[in-house]
Design brief:
The protein has 418 residues and is of the alpha/beta class. It folds into 3 domains: 116 residues, 3-Layer(aba) Sandwich (Rossmann fold); 132 residues, Rossmann fold; 145 residues, Alpha-Beta Plaits (2-Layer Sandwich), CATH 3.30.70. The chain has 16 helices and 15 strands. Strands 2-1-3-4-5 form a 5-stranded parallel sheet, with helices on both faces. A 5-stranded parallel sheet has the order 7-6-8-9-10, with helices on both faces. Helix 9 links the parallel strand 8 and strand 9. The longest helix has 33 residues. The radius of gyration is 32 Å and the shape is elongated.
Length: 418
């Protein structure tokens, strides 16, 4: 849980920050003196320190020095009414991460604290896998020590890039030395990008000239860190890249989720009407190109209106969900199932003959007939029509399967026609 320690002598600003933290679901603890703050830090897991410049029992300079010495991983933000260049410079020189003026609006302070709380900087890295490719044993040890100090443990070290590629692992961050024994960092970076790697790639080197750095960045590196490392700058650069990559992954995941929602039926999780037709067009195109078999099943629940009228629409939804699950469990991975509309379903069976499709339809029909619903004495049945694609387009094939479905309905329901 993200937790803020607020050191402030003004009860007005204590209440302001406390209310914002309550609104953002952030743990909040406050005090007014450096002594009390140090006692809290010794017992609580603090994620961020927000302090005024005016504190009791000691100077702010001495307090920040103590924090940096004993709790260096906890970032410090100064919030104050003093807005002078000298004050800002003095605080930044002491190692604070930011300086907020009290005249900032409540919304500005809220947005600032929310950005910190979304994910602490170290958390971005502790969840990520890192590869370091460096043929210098000394530099590998230095890098290992920096990561260990910052509690970053998911790190693999490689002396040879071929060993890294042969490992076959996908990393979130790659640290690649430019000067390697039997290769070059340039080649490694180019190979990673050519293979579609979207991860963070950071070049590391003792070479410090503009042309080299510019060339490496043009090859696809996200950043360039020079040796010997300054520990704080090294970690700050990696954290920045990690945060950007984490945001990229979140956006990608949300995009995929939205794409899935656009293609799926909200109730059953099967493909929706538009998407199942689109997939049928694609499969017919493949059949015409390669000459493979292709079959289609159209299903319709029997007397579904009676189920809704007798047991209610919520129970009717439950029936549709159960039927959809049975369909999914009785088709192959290559088959595609969709909700055609209402209580009607469509199943596309690539490379399946009419005989194979009929067997699948009968298996599904039988499973649905034997499905039991808790606390309800109800037998659900389904009728189906099966057609093998000859040279029809998607509408013609669906129409033929649909006609067979209605033939099954006219033949007494709970049967498959082909």
């Amino acid at each position: 849980m993200f937790k803020i320690l607020h050191i402030e002598t003004s009860s007005l600003y204590q209440k302001l920050i406390s209310d914002i933290c309550l609104e953002l679901d952030i743990d909040y603890v406050s005090c007014s003196s450096s002594k009390d703050a140090l006692e809290i830090l010794a017992t609580d897991n603090i994620s961020l320190i927000v302090t005024a410049m005016e504190i009791r029992e000691g100077s702010i300079e001495r307090f920040i020095e103590l924090i940096n010495r004993s709790y260096s991983k906890v970032p410090i933000v100064v919030i104050t009414g003093n807005d002078t260049f000298d004050d800002r410079k003095k605080m930044y020189d002491l190692g604070i991460v930011d300086y907020i003026v009290k005249k900032s609006s409540r919304d500005e302070i809220r947005d600032y604290l929310k950005a910190f709380a979304v994910k602490s900087k170290t958390q971005y890295l502790t969840d990520m896998y890192i590869a370091v490719c460096d043929d210098s044993k000394v530099d590998r040890k230095i890098t290992e020590r920096i990561f260990r100090i910052n509690s970053i443990n998911r790190v693999d070290f490689y002396e040879d890039p071929e060993e890294m590629f042969e490992a076959g692992r996908n990393y979130d961050i790659y640290l690649i030395d430019l000067i390697l024994k039997d290769s070059s960092g340039h080649q490694v970076i180019k190979k990673l990008r050519s293979e579609g790697c979207k991860s963070v790639i950071i070049a590391i080197s003792g070479i410090d000239n503009v042309k080299t750095i510019s060339h490496v960045l043009s090859l696809g590196a996200d950043d360039y860190i020079t040796k010997p490392y300054n520990n704080d700058i090294f970690m700050a650069r990696i954290r920045t890249c990690a945060r950007s990559y984490s945001l990229y992954k979140e956006v990608k995941e949300k995009t995929l989720e939205l794409e899935k929602m656009a293609k799926s039926d909200g109730l059953t999780g099967l493909l929706n009407h538009m998407e199942i037709f689109r997939q049928l067009d694609l499969e017919i195109e493949k059949k015409s190109r390669y000459g493979d078999n292709l079959s289609l099943i159209m299903f319709d629940l029997d007397f579904f209106k009676n189920i809704n009228d007798t047991y209610g629409h919520l129970f009717g939804d439950r029936v549709l969900e159960s039927v959809s699950s049975i369909i999914q469990n009785n088709i192959r991975n290559v088959d595609l199932a969709g909700r055609y509309g209402g209580e009607e379903f469509m199943i596309i069976l690539p490379k399946a003959s009419l005989k194979q499709a009929v067997e699948t339809a009968e298996r599904i029909r039988d499973a649905i007939e034997n499905c039991l619903f808790e606390n309800v004495d109800l037998k659900v049945t389904i009728s189906g029509g099966v057609a093998e694609c000859i040279k029809e387009n998607s509408k013609e094939l669906v129409s033929r399967a649909d006609n067979l479905l209605y033939k099954a309905k006219e033949g007494g329901r709970n049967n498959i026609q082909f």
